[in-house]
Amino acid sequence: MPVLDIGEVAQRSGVPASTLRYYEEIGLISSLGRHGLRRQFDGDVLLKLSLVGMGKAAGFSLVEIAGMFGQNGQPDIPRALLHAKAGELQRQILDLRTLRDILRHVADCPAPTHLECPTFRALLKAASRKRLAYHPSRKRAGGALKTAG
Amino acid sequence: MPVLDIGEVAQRSGVPASTLRYYEEIGLISSLGRHGLRRQFDGDVLLKLSLVGMGKAAGFSLVEIAGMFGQNGQPDIPRALLHAKAGELQRQILDLRTLRDILRHVADCPAPTHLECPTFRALLKAASRKRLAYHPSRKRAGGALKTAG
DNA sequence: GTACGAGTTCAAGTCGACTTGAGGTCAAGC
DNA sequence: GCTTGACCTCAAGTCGACTTGAACTCGTAC
What is the per-residue pLDDT across A40-49, written as a single tens digit (0 to 9) for each? Predict the structure, then answer.
């Protein structure tokens, strides 16, 4: 794997240099060393950044994502934890499907105002009965993702 | 629909009164009026809060969610926007599926360190080629949702 | 050997979504 | 008619994830 200057990493990954520095500061990624002042990264950092991006998209915090890699920066993840995360994701996928279906129904439903549509209310009620309650916010990445180089 | 005191709404929905006040302040929900000082809500607010909860879980900001309801607090959503949101959700679901599969693979893969596993690298590469790049964080709700009363 | 541009540090600022704290008010019950 | 407890307002604080700005330092090209 080639050695990449921070600028190149930024350009190829789309992650701003300031963010790369921030990620290094919190131990999410690490640089090989410096060339003068400039950080040099192993090419693998690009894959790692993809992983980070996906983790963020999945709603994990940077700390959680960092926890998925070992202490030493190698991804060295307890299998059970991974299965647990996958399970979380699965539940989340089901939730999103429910919401998607609700949105689609509402889009096609002719009721004048959606709270008056019995189907809408039923979907909503079913959904809340199944699962949903208040949970204070956590961070997440946006829904629409850009294409990477 | 019965008229509910803020305390009752808080208790039934699991949303703290402080948050309900905040939501009213930003126009996400509205109260019928007051009994003395106390806000009184229409029972429908519970359904609306479910919807808000789902929207948050799906990664929409409170402003976006508010935008799904009309200016006057009635849910009065342009159909096209709804379809667009549903599409966003769909893409997000696919992303989460990819990540879930990656996690599952990693959990079962015998490679000593995951970045060395060719399958892992391939999955990651495919995923990033398909879609993933940097996007600064937006807010989202946690993955594991509590059951509502 | 000097200018340039891309990088550096460090502190502070921002944004969304709330929470917390201090001090005040009101309806209901005794 | 006074106490109590649940609510009120308003300002400020918090947390994660970054970004921004000022002042500085290199390696490279001329």
Answer: 999 999 989 9
